Amino acid sequence: MSTYHKMILFAFFLSTGVLGAQNDSSSKRPEAQGWWNADRGSIGLAPKPREEKNAIVQIYAARAYSWRGTFAVHTWVSVKEEDASEYTSYEVMGFGGEREIPIIRMHNQAPDRKWYGNSPDLIFDLRGEAAQLMIPKIRAAVESYPYPKTYRLFPGPNSNKFVSHVIRNTAGIYVELPPHSIGKDWIGQALPVALSETRTGFQVSLFGLMGFTMGLAEGIEINLLGMAFGIDVLRPALKLPFVGRIGLKDKPVF
After folding, report:
1. How does DSSP assign 146-177, residue by residue?
2. pTM of this structure
3. Cβ distance 208 to 223 under 8 Å?
4. Which pLDDT score is estimated for 124?
5. How remote is the C-alpha of 27 from its chain's centroid?
6. From CA 106, how far away is CA 13, in angstroms rounded?
7. Residues 82/65, Cβ–Cβ less than 8 Å
8. Listed residue (227, 214, 219, 208) closest to 247, CA to CA
């Protein structure tokens, strides 16, 4: 057996081991209390507008609600213009789409709220003049999202495809979504080949079900049925399905 295949097997067993541990603690999950009264409070990652006058751009990821959280995270983008009194957050939610409720949701609540009891991780944080210049580009990317009326949990397009679209179409972000952001690799029905998420490499993907990514920011990543296995070389880390990154935290390469 080659070293490469041994690494894949190690990653698989490590992932399934963590998955088993998560299942053992299912009684402690937020859904045990019901989504209607799950904690949606701020965890203090976003500065209050009255305390931070500079423009801010942030991207968050939190474990998805219910059983989905075992496998994947939900992601969203938040912005605050210079001297603004509130944030604006953008995300995609499938709930209500069947009743023709817009799946692209925009709100002005705290950007670092728990996602129905699950605390978010801050994966991108930019402030000051560069953030102010980036905000119009983010809004243009939101407007250009090609699937504003379509939501499919797997393999996409879904909430992570939406944020991935924003990243791909906003120069200056240069971070990738976590490996357990299922849907991020669904690059489009007629786009088997594209630039990587950070535009520092390339990606081959068959409807998000099978693919390969290589990039300066991404390292090397294999996608199989929405599960991502990879290695980040610049910020050494192992990337695993269900788990996320093990190693150094991701950050912009430029």
Report:
1. S-TT---SSSSSSHHHHHHHHHHTSTT-----
2. 0.86
3. yes
4. 97
5. 25
6. 39
7. no
8. 219
Q: Which residues contact 111 (CB under 8 A, 6 or more apart)?
A: 46, 58, 60, 76, 78, 87, 89
Confidence at residue 33, expressed as pLDDT on a 0 to 100 scale? 57
- Comparing 2-11, 45-54, 162-171, 185-194, the range with the smallest average pLDDT is 2-11
What number of other Cβ atoms are within 10 A of residue 145's Cβ? 19
In tens, the pLDDT along 12-35 reads 444 444 444 444 444 445 554 575
Integer Cα distance of 139 and 247 in angstroms: 32
Q: What share of the chain is helix, strand, coil (3-state, %, to 5)?
A: 25, 30, 45
User: Is there a contact between 237 and 248 (Cβ–Cβ < 8 Å)?
Assistant: yes
CB 112 within 8 A of CB 36: no
Q: Which residue has the tokens 């929405």?
A: 226
What percent of the chain is modeled with pLDDT above 90? 73
CB-neighbour burial class of residue 50 (10 A; exposed 0-12, middle 13-18, buried 19+): exposed
Whose structure tokens read 């099978």? Answer: 210
The residues, any chain, with a CB within 8 Å of residue 160's CB and separated by 6 or more, are 72, 73, 74, 75, 177, 181, 182, 183, 184
**Structure-block tokens of residue 237:** 């880390």
The SS3 assignment for 229 reads: strand
| pLDDT score recorded for residue 36 | 65
